């Protein structure tokens, strides 16, 4: 169903370094940290990540208790060898992008993984990771589920913008009502 990405950044050709944030998903490392974390001359060992690939970050956080899995929607780049890069054999992966935003796969990770000596990282072998059982409906049903969840995300986004606008309106009114 899925295969691990093992292509390395030979001769450091790709300079765009990506990261996988539990809260924001895959994004440019420089934008996320406001600086370069990776050393540009030392990117040969990094994995190449194509748009549409998925990335598992083993770092545990309150947003991702077993580490986040996110789809790369920002474009081609490279990712630290600490992360696991993988892709599905099917072209439409919207269902899986939503699936990994759920906690449905967490119990498996807790069962086969461990935190080991590093309490802030999940340790799991590549073979155990790729053996993760996924409850997957047929492709037509996957599309329906993904479309429904994407529509809800869109509505939530629009409502968030409305809420932000109302908060700004309130702030402006408060400044007018209670000038300093």
Question: How much of the sequence is in beta strands?
Answer: 15-25%
Helicity, in percent? 25-40%
Structural class by secondary-structure content: alpha+beta
Determine the mean pLDDT.
91
**Secondary-structure element order, N to C:** EEEHEEEEEHHHH
Uncertain spans, ≥5 residues at pLDDT below 50? Answer: none
Main β sheet profile: 4 strands, antiparallel
Give a structural overview.
The chain is of the alpha+beta class and 180 residues long. It folds into 2 domains: 2-136, no CATH class; 137-180. The protein is 34% helix and 16% strand. The chain is built from 5 helices and 8 strands. Strands 1-8-5-6 form a 4-stranded antiparallel sheet, with no helix packed on it. Strand 2 and strand 3 form a beta hairpin. The longest helix has 39 residues, at 139-177. The relative contact order is 0.14. The model has no long low-confidence stretch (mean pLDDT 91).
At a glance:
The chain has 180 residues and is of the alpha+beta class. The protein has five helices and eight strands; from the N terminus they run βββαβββββαααα. The chain has two domains: 135 residues, no CATH class; 44 residues.
Characteristics:
4-stranded antiparallel beta sheet, globular, alpha+beta, two-stranded antiparallel sheet, 5 helices, 180 residues
Helices and strands, with pairings:
Elements: E1 2-4, E2 18-21, E3 25-28, H1 29-33, E4 47-49, E5 54-56, E6 69-71, E7 77-79, E8 84-88, H2 94-99, H3 106-112, H4 126-130, H5 139-177
Antiparallel strand pairs: 1-8, 2-3, 4-7, 5-6, 5-8
């Amino acid at each position: 169903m899925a295969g691990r990405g093992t292509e390395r950044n030979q001769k450091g050709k790709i300079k765009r370094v990506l990261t996988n944030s539990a809260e924001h998903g895959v994004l440019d490392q420089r934008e996320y940290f406001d600086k370069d974390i990776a050393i540009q001359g030392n990117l040969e060992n990094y994995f190449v990540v194509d748009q549409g690939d998925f990335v598992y970050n083993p770092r545990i956080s309150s947003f991702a208790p077993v580490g986040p899995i996110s789809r790369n929607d920002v474009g081609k780049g490279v990712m630290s060898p600490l992360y696991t890069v993988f892709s599905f054999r099917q072209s439409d992966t919207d269902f899986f992008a939503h699936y990994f935003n759920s906690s449905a796969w967490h119990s498996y990770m807790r069962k086969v993984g461990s935190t080991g000596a590093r309490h802030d990282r999940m340790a799991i072998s590549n073979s155990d990771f790729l053996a993760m059982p996924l409850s997957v409906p047929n492709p037509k049903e996957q599309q329906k589920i993904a479309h429904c969840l994407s529509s809800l995300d869109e509505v939530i986004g629009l409502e968030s913008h409305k809420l932000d606008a109302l908060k700004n309106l309130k702030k402006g009114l408060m400044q007018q009502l209670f000038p300093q």
